[in-house]
Design goal:
The chain is α/β, with parallel strands linked by helices. 30% of the residues lie in helices and 21% in strands. The N and C termini lie close together (11 Å).
Length: 81
Amino acid sequence: MRLSLFTPTHKPTYLVEAYRSLQLQTVTDWEWVILPNGPDVQIPDMIRRDPRVKIATGSEDLHNVGALKRRACDAATGDAF
C-alpha cells in the first residue's frame, strides 16, 4: 500500500526537517506531494531529487488552505492519504 503525504507551503522553512523525518520511517512506499503556494517558494534540491517527491503546480489561483490541500490531494496517487 502506497502512502501519500501532502504539504501545501508558502514558507518552506521546515521542509528539509520534514523530509529527513520521512526518510527515517519504516514505511518506505510513500510519495510526498509538495504544493508551493507562491512564485518565490524554493524547494531544496535534496528534496527535488528524490523520485518519491512530486512538486505539484497550479496554486496561483487558490487562496485558502482547503483549496490548496484539495489540489495537493488531486496530484497524489497513493492508496491512502
